[in-house]
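A quick aside before the break. I want you to see a complete sequence-to-structure record at least once, exactly as it would be stored in a machine-readable document. Don't worry about memorizing anything.
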Amino acid sequence: MAIILLICPSYLPFVSASSDGISIVSSTISLTDFDKIEQSDYQLEFDIEIIGSPTEPTSYADISFVMETISGTVISSTIENYSVNDSESIPVSHNFSEIPYGYVVILVSMTGDVASSSPTHESSFQRTLQRLNPLDISVGQSDSIIIEGIDSLGQGTGNLSVNDGDYVQLQIPVINDGDFDWSGFITVNLTDSNGFENTTSQLFSVSAMQTSIYFFNSTIMVNEGQISFDIWLNDSGDGDTSDESVNFMFSINPPPLPIISMSLEEVTTEIIAGETMLWNLEVYNSGEVGFDGNISCRFDQFLIANDSLVLDSNTGVNISVTTTARPGQLTCEVLNDRISLSSQPEVNLTLMVESAEFETAGGNVPAKLLGPWHEGDDVRLSILVRNHGSKSGNVKIVCEVAGITYAGDSIQLAVDEAGEIFVDVPMMESGLQMLNWSLQSSDGSIDSGLFGELNISVADRQTVEISISRVSWDEQNGLSFSWGVNLSDGVQRDVRVRLGYIDSLQESYLVDTVMSLNPGLTEGVLEIGFVDAEKVIVRANEDNWVAGFGFTSLSVNTPQERAIYSISFDPQTTPNRPIAGESAKVIVNLENSGMITGAQGNLILTTSSGVLIGERVVNPLGSQTTKIEQFTLLDWPDGDEVSLIATWEVSGQVITADEIFISSVTKTEEESSQLIDFFPAILGGIALAAAIILVVRLINSRQNLDSNDEKKKKSKSIDKTKKALSDVKIQVSCPECSRQLRVPMNYSGSVRCPDCNHNFDVEGEQDEPDEEPETTEEDSIDENVEHDDIQEKEVDDGKTEVACPECSQTLRIPSSYSGSVRCPACKNIFRT
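That is the input. The structure line, written in tokens, reads:
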């Protein structure tokens, strides 16, 4: 009680204490010291009663209820009045509301008729009450998170900073401001230029009102630059997520790097323009790590050296550099390896020497020539330059496009002399092309500004298109076709054009020439003539340039319809048997059995000995038509038989027909022939007698073997063939080759054609005899001999036999004839 009085002296009640009066029963007080609650109110309960023997039957007391902070600040205060009768116990209840989080002190005291305190009763009491703070978990902000570099084993690097190539460790504070323990999970997301890592911790616990450190070790190496962290607690349960996550950026320092220093000095003491100049370049590495890269040197922007360079830590090297002496600046630098910012990456030295000096004599930009340009064309850059220096020198123009450098030819200019320099640059792609140009001199200086960029608009490649608009066959002129070569928009181009035909897969060109074509269509007509080609063809190829996509050749099938010509004689003359020296008419039949109209031709009629009888022009024959041409011979040739030849020259062909006509014999010729025939008749009789004797002997030798019936049959057969053959002969046509043969009018039997050796049967005109004469064996034999003579005899009429090369058919033609012959069997035309 003494302690309470010291802490809260203003709240000590004034009581008139005695052993009799109202008192608090200690055992009924519901609040014990340092009780804990979670709610914001508390219901305090206890009992009061009278002890001892008061003089009055009813006692009165005021009870004070006070709640204050641990530091003594009053939070709430209430007084309640109570009256108690003798031997009566009254329960007291008071509700403390809006109790703050943390610790408060509850003070209860009585004034009035109050009894003194005893071990079981009290007149006042105080208790400490704790209202528990709710769960409140948060993660430390970026300024409270420690970031350190570690190695792959998780050991610290000992560096004050995190460098490129290190692993990262985060020390993350997790703060519990509540009066309850917490367990949960922490997620860390790390992102840098090469990737990311996302990790969720195992179950992590933080005690009430405590802060615990969560260690995160990355599994990936970080790279120099900015990296980002995102950290959050997973479902803390305190209902406030605003303090449970944090994200921030962190800079990763570069790794240990080489520290490079360089120096450059002239070695050549006597410097003459155009001659060799030596330089010494010293490179030193004072860094903690080695250098592995390149050393590159340029003189007036032109690369003269680019070599690999390897330097260990704290080592150096001397490099000799050679140039041509001319005014300019030599610059050397290290490349292709990272160096410290404290390095000297470049060194340069300017050379002054008396030499040529070049400037432009016209515009400061090269002229673009040979346009407009298409893909694959050359652009010519041309510029006029003048030497205004003190010595003569060389100069050229250089151009770079798409990483490829092209240099023109150098020209030498004396002092104050001007000249043109140029370079041809191929345009390998279409579209807008950028050309970097500059002037170069091996022994002089170039005025400033004589370099730059040019944009060239390059169109797609020009194309060549081939066309064949018409293919026709004309019996007058033969095969022809219309062709065209179309060059797309652009410039004039040289194109090799070939025109011809294809026969049996062999290409034959009648035209093969290089044409300079302007953009647009170039066309023409090619007359091939009388050639039996399968296709016509056009080929067009670029000459010293490359065209865009397109076909370089085109072929089209030729028309197959042709006029089919044939010629023949009418075997009947007018009169039937002309007399030599008199007039007679001969008819020649012309036919076109093809599907197209034929051509105009020449018809020539000659004798077999080549004597010209007549010649005329024959107009074109329509398809499937025939024509009759009649020739009048005013003076019929001499001879029993007159052989005529008709020749039709048409459509490049020479078609012939021959015919043998029978002439009438004059009286003088008949008498002469009787005398002439007398001697052959005698010789023939002798030969016939010998043959009869031979046959009789053969018959007698077989008489014993032959029966009488066989003799009768033989006799009958001989009787049938015994009839004498007529002197009048008629013409029959061989069914195989149309050869005209002369046989006796009344002959029936087999006949062999002397031209094609084909055997065929003929039927003669038979006369009805009044009586059947007897036929002797001798007559029969004679008749058989005459039969054989008809089959085998070939008239020697001045003709010769030739064989068709296609089907081996044998043809008979005049011995004096030379030209084309059509085979009647296979229609093949060949020359003799």
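Two observations worth writing down. Residues 1-17, 667-681, 701-722, 768-795 have pLDDT under 50 and may be disordered. The domain at 2-131 is CATH 2.60.40.2550 (Immunoglobulin-like). We'll return to this after the break.
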